[in-house]
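hiii so my PI (J.) wants the whole complex modelled not just the main chain, which honestly fair. so below is everything: two entries, each one labled with what it is. i double checked the lines twice but i was tired so who knows lol
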Amino acid sequence: MNNFVFKNSTELVFGKAVEEQVGEYTAEYGSKVLLHYGGGSIKKTGLYDRIIKSLQENKVDYVELGGVQANPRLSLVQEGIKLCHEENVDFILAVGGGSVIDSAKTIAVGAKYDGNVWDCFIGKGSITDMIPLGVVLTIPAAGSETSDSAVITNEEGWLKRPIGHPMMRPVFALLNPELTYTLPDYQTACGVSDMLAHTMERYFTNTPNVDLTDRLCEATMRSIIEQGPKVLENPKDYAARAEIMLAGTVAHNNSLDMGRETDWASHDIEHELSGIYDLAHGAGLSIVFPAWMKYVYKVNKPRFEQFAYRVFGIEPQFDGSDASIIKGIKALENFYVSMGLPIRLEDADIRDDRYEEMAKKATNNDTRTLGHFKPLDSKDIHEIYKLCAMSKKW
Amino acid sequence: MNNFVFKNSTELVFGKAVEEQVGEYTAEYGSKVLLHYGGGSIKKTGLYDRIIKSLQENKVDYVELGGVQANPRLSLVQEGIKLCHEENVDFILAVGGGSVIDSAKTIAVGAKYDGNVWDCFIGKGSITDMIPLGVVLTIPAAGSETSDSAVITNEEGWLKRPIGHPMMRPVFALLNPELTYTLPDYQTACGVSDMLAHTMERYFTNTPNVDLTDRLCEATMRSIIEQGPKVLENPKDYAARAEIMLAGTVAHNNSLDMGRETDWASHDIEHELSGIYDLAHGAGLSIVFPAWMKYVYKVNKPRFEQFAYRVFGIEPQFDGSDASIIKGIKALENFYVSMGLPIRLEDADIRDDRYEEMAKKATNNDTRTLGHFKPLDSKDIHEIYKLCAMSKKW
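here's the output for the full assembly
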């Protein structure tokens, strides 16, 4: 186990009707709020009205900025920063999923940054202060509701990049599983794929002696795999929705990576896909992760045997072959398929070959490698994109 | 899953040599510190000197109060409160195990409470403020290093009682597994028993639909059971010491009980034992917990079957009998025995029968029941004490 520091001070408020407390929670931190949201589905469901009512009842003044898209854009972030300055905003309330929260986090950082906030994404600037923010979560997926990071797409060059800082965790996160009843199946499935990927990025490590966190990761993966299909079967299954919503938070609150080196190559490889094709992030991950596994598993076979056994119940081989490892990867693919997710590029209607371009972009033109389990250069990444397109018989 | 609020803002700093940062961390919060510790083992090991050096290097002034015993006493707490007032202490640094931390927490609360702090233990007063405190942990067991509660023994009547408040979590906790190398085997084993009990108090619930937290509890129990014997075998096994130390924190940081009703009857029943006989808490728990299980399992057999299967790998019976449940409880007893812990009162040289007296005290003279899995009155508790004395053939 490596030395580590863990601190996650977000107040997680979970369960039925908790969003009705939003005004009360917000009033503890701010008096002029930027209400940030997406395409307007919160207006259709009535959530918007309930939030406004709660803010008003608690005498919280607000301005609003909607329109956050999937793969949230820098241009809207800039608009938000401007609004914060003009309106003396002292708190940001994100109502939505990971895209809205990431956009809100970046506005919160940018409003206190002297310069272009994109600097902080490319190592030209650093985060020293931010406006505090709170969250009402509507899509369990990204784990951004208690995480310390955000991912934004810069339309100039369609660069999708992350930033992180301990300060960036929301001060509160209100999670009502009932708010997720109306999510389309595909979006639910993409969320499940994302939280599973967050756990796998932490699980696949070469750090020795990480028994407890291994088991905590396995617990989270098993629960996601158990509950995911239930949610698709009955979208109003409160119990299953609650498990999935909580799993999304646990998968990304950093409790699963205490003392472990993490990977994140698959996320970076996926970011190029969804950056270029505007594919849903979770759908990109269900294509990239199995391909990554096939490419890297030989680096640490026991870890993949353990994954197959403890997560999918596939007994280890005792003949020295890789059969159980392959079965484990196929079991993961089968899970994705059962959730209606793509596992090859063609399933997502991506048929052109921009592999080399994406591999170059992912490595910033061969100036960095991706991941830690096996550090990958642009040639490795090119091979992984090829595996994303290969026959399903693999 | 029940509605819940989870917030644990303690900064957990974990790994080799982290105690050397204590001055730096302390200086962030206070300038006049009460250094609180136990019987002086920290002086023998040199830890005391390293801490003083770090405080001095960071220009932190301090007063000290040692002498905390196992089952920490109210009289020393009162002394600490007096010292805080006299010396204008603005931060408390606890260096030790759960007893020292609980004593420090109670001093921290008492110093800001107008009246006798014992009021807060018996419902006559409530906690509204406290001096912040930090921890250097030397015994992995109680989980008090990030928990929001404390247990103190009042010598008047030898009443052992808990208090809790969200505010009571330490602001930082420095955990170096190397500091636990010198713990005697018995103390190590008692710590392992305590953290296992903390997980079981959360695990045995009748709250339905708690799949993820069930699995997280099981992960923690399996890791404790896997790593505990390794630590006894080789006390300087850093990897195993680290797993046990981290498990002690995870077991009691409230992440394992999100959305679940918890029990705590076994703890309360044990408190009467260790309150009267001054038995180590962990040793009392290894006697009480199996007895409690035998008395209550019929309330929810599937939960005990799941425990046997998922924690100890004992396959469920398919004949309607309780055989796998019994095997599970016996497997737990065998684990305790392998750690050198008592599983019956006679193993701890307790041969007199004060069961009725203890049962009455535990229920505050029949004015409350204990636990939630099966609420227990004094007659039930009397029966459980009898089971603590019964033949090992059970």
